[in-house]
Every structure is written in C-alpha cells, then in structure tokens.
Design brief:
heterotrimer, A alpha/beta, B alpha+beta, C alpha/beta, A: alpha/beta, Rossmann fold, 10 helices, globular, B: five-stranded mixed beta sheet, 40% helix, disordered N terminus
Chain lengths: 275, 355, 281
C-alpha cells in the first residue's frame, strides 16, 4: 500500500518539562517526579497508508486524544515530525511550518469528527453553513454550487434536507455527529480523524452511524485514524491498531491479531475486561 | 426648494463654545481661582490627574474650570496636553515602603506594627449634610479643634513595615511576578496578552467608575475574589532620576493611594497561599486603588470566565477617555452610512416582503 | 498655539507613527498597532486620521478635510481649524489642489492622483469584530487567514435574506491576503480602492491601529459569484443641485416627507455647477 503519512517520535509534554521527563514516566504514571510536568504522549511513531484505517485504542488519560490533536495540527508538539507523502507536499514536515500554512494544509488534508459536537460544529451557524465552510475556504464562490454539494451530503448522510438552514443545536446527538461527518468530508480530504465520535450516542444510534460511516469511507477510499476506548468500534472500523497506555504505544499490529491474541499485559487486561 | 445645505460655519462652532462659557456667568459669583479649585476639590483634582495620567494639580484644576466640572472631559484635556510633552526621562523605581504616609489602614488585623493611622478621611462619619459648612469660618474651627489641646505630636515614621512583608516571611503569599519587564503603554501599543506592567499602567489611568463597575461585579459574585484590604496607604512618594554625573536627584514628589488586597488562596504553585492584588494611582482615591487591586488579582488568578477576569475585556474597556469619546462620536453625522443601510433594507424588503 | 510643536505631536511621536505607516504600506491591509496619542479631539472623532495627518504634514502641503463628503461639516471644519493652527498650512476644499485629504466616511468622486494621500478616520479597524469580539482571537485569525467565520456570515445572510446585509463598512480582501475594514465608506466607494493610483492610509486612534492600501493594490469586496457585490442603487435619481446621476447621493427628507437627492461630495457638486451643469427638468 502507498504510504501517506509518516509520524516520527511525536511527543507532547504539558508543563515546564525537564531532561528526565521521558525516562522517569511511563511505568507508574505520566507525571514527571522531578518537574511535575505531564507526559501526555511520548515517542509515538507510525505510518498511515492510503485507504488504511488505523485504530488508536486506550483508556481515558492514555494520551490518545492528545495524539489526535497533534495529528490535526491543533497542538504544538514538544518533539517529533509528521511527514506527508502527497503532492504537492511530499516530504514536508507538517509540524515545522507556519500556523498560516498549517491551517491551509490542514483543511486540505484532514477532516475531523470530535466526540463532543461543540468542538466540531459552529453552533451559531446553520447546519448547511457548517458543512459549507470548507468549500468556501477552498475557494468555492458560487452559492448554488455550495448548496448543491451540501444537499448531496445531507442526502448521503440521511440528514433532513429541509433542516439545512437551521441551527445544529436543534439537532439530535446522532444527527449532530452525522453533520460533523458531512463537514469533515465535504472537500474529499485524503485523511479522516475520528475522536471517540460515537461515545456520547445511544447504542442503537451508534450502530447506525458506524455502519453508514463505514460505507462512506469505503466509497471514498479515504484513510482514517480512529481513536477510541471502545474495542467494539476499533474491531469494526480498523485494519491496524496502536494500543496506548500512559502516553506510550505499548503494542501495535493488525487489529484482528491484537484483539485475538494480545501480547502486552495492559492490552490483555483491556481486551479481557471487555470480552 | 426645501433643501437646506448642511453646512456648519466657523462662526457657529465659536458661538456654541461662547454660549457654553456664558452659562457660568449668569450668577453673581466670581470665578474660583485655580488654587481654590485645587484646595477645596482636591479629591476631584486627584481623580482628574489619575485618569489623565499627568500629575499636575494646577492644570487639573484648570481643566475642571474649563469643562465646568466634567471629570471625563477634564481627564481628556490633561491627556491631550500630555501628548505634546517630550519624554525626557523615566524616574527610578520607587519602593513604596518609603512612602511618607498620611493615612494607613489594614482590615486584615486588629492592629499591626506601626499602627492604624486614620489620617484624613470621612469614612467613619455619618453621611448627613453639614449645614455648618455654609458658615464662613467653619473650616477654620475644624482646623483649630485639631490642634488645640494636643499634648504632644508623634511623628509618623519614615518607613512603616508592610503587612504583606509579614505574611511573605511566613511564606503565605504567592507572588504575581510572571513578568517583571517594563513597557510604557504611552509609547508602545498594548499587545495581548499584556505584560503585568502594562496591565497596572492601564488600570492606574482607568476611569474610576469603570474600575468600580468591573471590580464590583467580581466582588459581588461574577468572580470569586473575597478581598481583604491587607493594607491601604495614602501618602507622598519622592521621585528620583539618575543624575548625568552619577547618583540620583529628586525631581519632586507625588501623592498616591496604594492598595494591597489579599484575595482567596490559590494552590496554583504547590501548597495553598494567598494571592495579592496591587493597586496604585495618583492622588487620594481609595475606591480606585482598591478596585484596581481587585482587578489586578482577578486578571492574574481568576478563571478568565467572568468579564472582570478577562484581561482583554478589562483593559480594552476601562479607559475613560477612549470610552467617553466613542460614546459621544455617535452624535456626529452618519448620514452616508445610514443611506447605505437604508439601501440594503429597501432591497431586502422588496425581495421578501416579510423580512 | 505658539506653545505647541509644529504638527502638535512631539517629534518622537511623529517618527513612531511614520514608521508604523511604512510598515502598513509594506503589508497591505494588515493592522499595525501603534501607541496612539491623545489629540485635542474626542476619541472616535478622527483622532487616528488626525495623528497620521499631523505626522505626515509638511509646510508645503495643502490639506482638505471632509466628513460625509462635505467640506463644511462640523468635524471637517474643526480638523482643518486645528491643523491650520498648529502648522500654518493652507487648507482647501478643492480636491484637485489638496496633497493630503483627511476623510470620514467617503472617498471623493473624482479619481485621485499618485501625488495625493487619502487619510481615513476609522472607528472600527477590525473587520472580524462582528463575528469575533476578542482582539487576541481576531489577531490570530488574521495571522492564519482563518476567515471561515467571516465568509459564513455572508453565506448565512444569503440564505436568510438573499442578500448580504452589510450596508457601509463592507469588508474587502486586500492584496489577496488580509480581510480589511475599509472604514464606514458606502459600498459606492469600495471599487475606488481597487488598484487606486493614490495611497490610502487608515488611522484608528481609539483602537490604536494603522493600516494602508498602497497604490496599485488589489482590493476585492467579499462576494459570491452568483450574488455579486453591488453598490447603493440611485437609479432614476439625480442631484437636485447639479443634476449628476453618477455620484453618491444624500437623501434629504423635506417637510411633508418628500425626498430630494443631492451630491454627498460637495466639492464635486460645486465644481459641476460652476462649469455650467444644471438640473435637467
């Protein structure tokens, strides 16, 4: 498979930081005993290929959400590189560029769906407007074209067309998540980031959203990074998985294999407690 | 044709000005001298100097006379005058421990080293209109009563210990020293987040009413400072500049009010400690100094969720000269912009009769 | 007024303002913070424009000042009176003769030349303010060209009203980089900024910002192709004094509610009348 993204030693320390932060954390906790800083994410490296769906599995506090925010270029990393293999940015380290270029490239390459719709949607802007934003930023200046595209996505995501101009705050939880998905894929980005995006939903709604999203991802041939604490979601949505604990990747491999036969003791507890 | 040319000629502007000044000549009394204004309305003069950020009692008195007692206008007159003056030098940092105190109180302890010195204050008087003041020699009687019968005069020490220092020695205070570097907000634009020196300068020349409003909102509940006035001082500070040939030279003294407010404890850095807010302004203006201290603390230690804890919100809105000017500018003609709005409204209504 | 320096401000202040103007010219549309001084004019009454004027003016300059296009309005008269007093320079109402033109809310009808500078008084320098109140946020948004929210506000207008609701102060994109507030000029004047021959300087005293549109710089109103930007509609109307149907008109309400229209640019109107233009009956 064609390489799309190569992440090297991604590290995020919250706080002052010191020389010992990395070496003294990970085993018992992720607070540095010397300087008190929190090591949220330490030396995470992985590759993402075209069309591949990569899971990041961990409990809350494992550093998986920090990792996703780093990948979405929302946070300044302490250390690390993130190389793209995609024209015209091939070889570019996305973490070394100016905030201006970062924003431009981010909106072209990534779509993101957050656990809490408040982070992913502009609640003061109409549902259609939320989806339209990317298109406008990418240079589309015809209202008719924009509305056509938004309408098509509303249909595909089974959102009520006649509520396109209403505020998303009046939508149900499931609808808000589907709206976030529409917003994330409106300009066909190559990579989709999903952050615990079904966690707040009722189980029945959750299954529907997952099914629909999987279909769409398959149609688009999009690559995805799926962050979740839910083994079911990881199992259903991903080809490969990284297991994180205390800011470290403790195990990685094919999703089937890892869930069948976990090697790391932490993964074992995680898998067995759920099954 | 009914069209009246919208022209204001020079004469009209001058006449408007003349009429304004004429109003004060309608009575029989002669104009007070600058000395009289500065003396009888010293708190008002102090307030003008503080908000105008220029220490010049005579000029402040002139501004008050000229603007018929409008404090916002008076402060503005001083500011505009200030713009014309070259910055010759910066005075050296002053240690307020060396303040020549005329009043000093603490609410935190019943008594403290150096004692509670009430000094000149109406704080403890009943707010009853005092008709005796209408009589010519009342003021002198007050003065006589102060001195008569005194057995001895105890001079106030040159430097009184600070309450905060005592708490500091016990390690009970967390210092707000995020940044000690100095910016001059009259020479450099305010950049956000503002450094503490810029915060203190902006607050110190803020409008008294504006500071009061914001600080009050915090004390009342939109914020969580329950301030204890650790120490409030009114007194004189000597200002010195470096002498070109070495040493320093005193260039004068200014009267100031200083407030150190002890706020709720914080455990921001390690174990819980009190956080301190600092206020200092020109002249005798206790309301302002206390409110400034509350806001200094709220900005630094607050949650940032309430208006008074949001640095940008506070600093952008406390300046009386800015806000007063802007509020009044709406009196200027806006008929071109209004025409533009009318055009939009008509167009929208014609498209969709119900909007 | 002999007590005051030429141009009122002290030389150090003038130098700082000129440096900030140079920076503004170098980065078209970018708001440069400056240490705004108090001048003897209320904040909001043109103190930013005035500080630019005072910093640039030399003995040879000829100053014109207008408010709403009018040379004789109170604000314009006052500014001219003050600048004359502290500099002794000549003032004029003739747009063609002026080297510096300080304006509130209008751009003169006649095209300006390379050797003229137009100085705008700006109440709200931040075009993003009405979608985002915080200055820290708007500065970040400009730095990253994070203009989604601004565009969405136009999109939402279109959805709701089939038209952008902004009257005056129409936001523009300068040099294809920064969104800028052109000051509260009518939309009529916005196209005059695009590729203009003259230098445009904008001063916001209270908000402490200076920005510029240098000559021959692109200035595009934010618009959607299928809902194009449009200026105020005066079709079928003409100036009651000079007969012009090509200028921005003030609508005058007469006794009984009847409307009359006259040129907002008084100098333009006067000159047309002097050259024999009359009202077609």
């Amino acid at each position: 498979m064609e390489l799309l993204l190569k992440v090297e030693s991604l590290t995020k320390v919250f706080g002052r930081g010191c020389e010992q932060c990395l070496s003294l954390t990970g085993k018992d906790g992720n607070r540095c005993p010397i300087c008190g800083s929190i090591v949220a994410c330490a030396d995470v490296s992985f590759e993402l290929h075209r069309g591949e769906w990569l899971g990041i599995l961990g409990e809350s506090g494992s550093g998986k959400s920090t990792l996703l925010r780093l990948l979405n270029l929302e946070l300044e990393p302490t250390k690390g590189r993130m190389l793209v293999n995609l024209e015209p940015y091939t070889g570019l380290d996305l973490l070394s560029i100016s905030p201006y270029s970062r924003r431009l490239i981010r909106q072209e390459l990534f779509g993101i769906v957050y656990q809490n719709p408040i982070h992913g949607l502009r609640m003061e802007v109409s549902a259609g407007g939320n989806v339209a934003e990317r298109l406008i930023l990418m240079g589309e200046r015809r209202v008719e074209k924009i509305r056509e595209r938004v309408l098509a996505l509303f249909r595909r995501l089974e959102l009520p067309e006649d509520r396109m101009d209403e505020l998303p705050s009046s939508f149900s939880g499931g609808m808000q998540q589907r709206l976030q998905i529409a917003k994330a894929i409106v300009n066909n980005p190559p990579i989709l980031l999903l952050d615990e995006f079904t966690t707040g939903l009722d189980p029945s709604v959750q299954a529907g959203v997952l099914e629909l999203l999987k279909e769409i991802m398959f149609e688009l041939g999009i690559s995805a990074i799926v962050v979740s604490h839910d083994i079911g979601v990881i199992n259903f949505m991903t080809h490969r998985v990284l297991v994180m604990n205390r800011g470290r990747v403790v195990e990685h491999g094919l999703t089937d294999q890892i869930l069948e036969d976990p090697q790391d003791p932490y993964t074992q507890t995680l898998v067995h407690s759920k099954l | 044709m009914g069209y009246v040319a919208i022209r204001v000629n020079q004469e009209a502007i001058e006449n408007a000005e003349a009429l304004f000044y004429h109003l004060r000549t309608k009575g029989n009394s002669s104009a007070p001298t600058l000395d009289q204004v500065a003396q009888y309305f010293h708190l008002l003069v102090d307030r003008i100097m503080s908000e105008g950020s220029l220490y010049a009692p005579k000029l402040a008195a002139l501004a008050l006379l000229q603007s018929a007692g409008d404090t916002l206008e008076s402060a503005f007159l001083l500011r505009a005058y200030r713009s014309t003056l070259s910055r010759l030098d910066y005075s050296l940092p002053v240690d307020t421990r060396n303040m020549q105190v005329i009043r000093r109180i603490s609410a935190a302890f019943k008594d403290l080293p150096g004692g509670q010195l009430l000094g000149p204050s109406l704080d403890y008087s009943l707010r009853l209109l005092n008709f005796e003041l209408l009589e010519e020699d009342t003021w002198r009687r007050y003065a006589r009563s102060l001195i008569e019968g005194l057995e001895r005069i105890v001079p106030i020490p040159e430097n009184l210990p600070k309450l905060i220092d005592i708490l500091r020695k016990e390690g009970l205070v967390v210092e707000n020293v995020a940044d000690r570097s100095f910016v001059d907000i009259t020479r450099e634009p305010l950049s956000l987040p503002a450094k503490r020196s810029a915060v203190l300068q902006s607050l110190s020349r803020g409008e008294t009413g504006g500071l009061l409003l914001l600080a009050y909102s915090n004390m009342r509940g939109y914020g969580d400072i329950h301030p204890t006035v650790g120490e409030l001082r009114v007194g004189y500070l000597k200002l010195e500049i470096p002498h070109p040939k070495g040493g320093t030279i005193c260039v004068g003294e200014v009267k100031v009010t200083e407030a150190e407010v002890i706020a709720r404890f914080t455990s921001e850095r390690g174990e819980p400690r009190f956080s301190i807010g600092y206020g200092l302004c020109f002249g005798h203006n206790e309301t302002k100094a206390i409110c400034m201290a509350v806001l200094d603390n709220a900005i630094h230690f607050g949650t940032g969720k309430n208006p008074s804890e949001d640095q940008e919100f506070v600093l952008m809105h406390v300046d009386g000269v800015d806000s007063m000017g802007f509020a009044n500018h709406y009196k200027l003609p806006h008929y071109v912009t209004f025409q533009s709005d009318l055009d939009r409204l008509r167009s929208m209504r014609s498209k969709d009769g119900k909007v | 007024m002999e007590r005051y320096n030429f141009g009122f401000l002290d030389e150090e202040a003038k130098r700082e303002i000129r440096r900030k103007i140079l920076k503004a010219v170098a980065i078209p549309g970018y708001q440069v913070p400056f240490a705004s001084r108090e001048v003897p004019l209320l904040k909001g009454w043109g103190t930013g424009g005035l500080q630019i004027t005072l910093s640039l003016i030399g003995k040879e300059d000829i100053l014109k000042a207008i408010d709403q296009g009018c040379d004789y309005s109170l604000n314009a008269m006052n500014i001219k009176r003050f600048v004359r007093a502290v500099t002794g320079v000549e003032t004029t109402t003739d747009t063609r003769r002026a080297t510096l033109i300080q304006t509130r809310h209008r751009i003169p009808e006649e095209e300006l030349r390379e050797d003229q500078i137009l100085i705008f008084q700006v109440p709200y320098p931040e075009p993003l303010r009405w979608v985002k109140a915080s200055e820290r946020e708007t500065r970040r948004m400009h730095a990253e060209a994070d203009y989604g929210l601004m565009w969405l506000s136009l999109y939402e207008d279109m959805v709701r009203y089939k038209e952008v609701t902004i009257g005056a102060r129409y936001p523009v994109l300068v040099n294809r980089r920064y969104i800028m507030d052109p000051s509260p000029i009518p939309r009529w004047d916005v196209p005059k900024l695009h590729m203009s021959k003259h230098l445009n300087l904008f001063g916001a005293g209270r908000e402490k910002k200076i920005y510029a549109v240098p000559p021959h710089t692109s200035v595009e109103p934010l618009e959607f192709e299928d809902y194009p930007f449009r200026v105020e509609d005066f079709s079928g109307k003409a100036c009651a004094l000079c007969g012009s149907s090509e200028s921005f008109l003030d609508e005058i309400v007469e006794d009984g509610g009847r409307r009359t229209y006259v040129c907002s640019d008084t100098d333009y109107c006067t000159r047309r009348r002097q050259s024999g233009a009359t009202v077609k009956s």
